[in-house]
Amino acid sequence: MDIQSIFEKKISELPDGPHVDGLRAVKTHIDAAVRHFLRGQSEPDETLFTDVIFRCNQAFEGSIKEAYRVLAGKDPKKVRPYDIEQFLASNNLLRKKVLDQFVNYRQEWRNPSAHDYTIDFDEDEALIAIVSVTVFAIVLTDQIDGKIAFTAAASAPPSQDLSPAEKKAPLLELVTNKAREFACTHIDIAGPTNSHAHDYYRLEGALAGFLSAELSILSDVSVEQNSKFASSEADIVVRRGSEKIIVELKRVINKSNVKTMVQRAMTQVALYLHEDDVVGAVVLVYATEGAEYDTYPGVGALSKIVRIISPKSNAKVI
Prior knowledge:
Layout (H helix, E strand, L loop, with lengths): L2 H10 L5 H25 L4 H25 L9 H10 L5 H20 L7 H32 L9 H5 L2 H15 L10 H19 L6 E8 L4 E8 L2 E10 L5 H15 L5 E10 L5 E5 L8 E6 L7
Parallel strand pairs: 3-4, 4-6
Antiparallel strand pairs: 1-2, 2-3, 5-6
Helix pairs in contact: 1-2, 1-6, 2-3, 2-6, 3-4, 3-5, 3-6, 5-6, 6-9, 8-9
């Protein structure tokens, strides 16, 4: 596995913007770290492995600056790296797996090398640092793409006003109808890439942004991504007052996988339904190739609080 090539591909698939130049600078530092590492293996100079860490630190700081630029929507130029780190760590902007990588690199590599000028790193430590910071940059790039998609979709005007009946409808019904409208009308302008994860986060951002735009007419409704619960981290949460509706998104390339995806999604939402204030869930199985969609209730005890939106099929999916 060539993680440098994976990172390069992720960057090339992002929409244009200053974040692209910033992430390319991150890639330059990672490439330099790899060169130091290879020299350290071939030359009698073990200080080169410590130099690897310093280059990785530059890549780490560049990554969090670009995250701050996109996720917070602010220019990182005049903000100290420490303040950016605190902001990202405390404002629920990073997905759990991204946050885990963030905390790990900061504690294990950046902080020790920044505060102890006598420290030395060996070959194994240098290798782990390269892998850690590159993986962090890769998963962060996916989240950046999702945020860009959210912002673009959320800035669009609602497709139409809500009728008086829709405004008074139960939140589950309202979210279900809007999620199905998204499934039926969404066109991914950028098109599929070579990364299924990249495409998924962009799709999720577009869905969350669409719901935010469409429901912005209702002042008491808000849409959140990456909401953390005791059981897990929800894709999207639509909140009205104290009520919360979970939206669980699955993306399928082959429609033959719809049944499996629905079952996996149902297993996941069952966990959320035990959380405080969660009154229902919508499962959307989105087909990357054009499809017509059915909407139907969950089975058994979940029939009143779960709605499933999936490509039409003659086969029973649950």
